[in-house]
Specification:
A 4-stranded antiparallel beta sheet has the order 1-2-3-4. The N and C termini lie far apart (31 Å). A hairpin with a 2-residue loop joins strand 1 and strand 2. By secondary structure, the chain is an alpha+beta fold. The mean pLDDT is 88. It is globular and about 30 Å long. It has 2 helices and 4 strands.
């Protein structure tokens, strides 16, 4: 943990995306059972983007719950 109480970002691995739509991926913020969260730079500045694990993304019930 850093002095501001946040976990440091991790470097990207070769399997990580470098761009998602208009967002340029800068680093990995975290990874868990649901997916991976990336720090990205977009047209309006920095954003966090969550990418859902493939197995969950194809499950219609999960997608419905996630939308809610």
């Amino acid at each position: 943990m850093t002095s501001n109480g946040l976990h440091p970002a991790s470097a990207l691995e070769t399997s990580d995306p470098v761009q998602i739509g208009p967002y340029r991926i800068a680093s990995k913020l975290g990874q868990g059972g649901m997916g991976t969260v990336y720090l990205a730079e977009g047209p309006s500045g920095p954003v966090a983007i969550k990418v859902i694990n493939r197995l969950l993304a194809v499950d219609p019930e999960f997608r419905a719950r996630f939308r809610r």
